[in-house]
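Project standup — Tuesday

K.O.: blocked on the structure for the chain from last sprint. Re-posting the sequence here as requested.
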Amino acid sequence: MDSKLGDSLKFGPRVQIVLWVALVAIGVCGRLWQPTYNVTPFAAIGLAAGSLFGISITAAAVPIVALVISNLALPGYDSTIMALVVYGSLACPVLFGSLIRRQGWIALIGGSLASSLLFFITTNFTCWALTSQYAHTLSGLITCYVAALPFYRWMPVGDLVWSISLFGVLVSIGRTQQILLSQQVIPVASGAPQTVDRLTEEQSGRQ
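H.V.: unblocked you, prediction finished:
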């Protein structure tokens, strides 16, 4: 059963197209103008895409397309493997989308923090494995993670703030849409306007 949060994230096809483009734009702008290192909206747009479009290519394309576009203005990766790990880790939040629809805000917070941790673990492990900067031992791996902590410090905070803010906006849009639809005026034979709710009640009474 969908949560109240999930109920507010139901949009028609046209609105979904607009939201898809908006999420990509937010990802690109947020990555290019991040206030500090690794504070970007990528976890937020991935979680939102998964919640809006389900676990699908359409949802996964949101962070991937945003990465491709923003990378045109940023330095490249050291290797193809590192690029694949970055793309994969930033697309993974899409997988939490269905859980957020069912469980609501608690799942959103958990998904946001899990996304940050996943990115930290996978990218730094890849850096340790592919380069000679750290010894290929357990001690070297620990040293790699410790050295990366300053870059990780604000990432969970940024992901959480971006996620709550973005979902707050989406919920507001969804509820506004529901109110407008419920108050839509429908002409009847008598010529007197009635709302959808009132007309539905009268129809159900005649059945």
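K.O.: great, moving the ticket to review. The first helix runs from residue 4 to 7. Residues 4-206 form a domain with the Arp2/3 complex 21 kDa subunit ARPC3 fold (CATH 1.10.1760).
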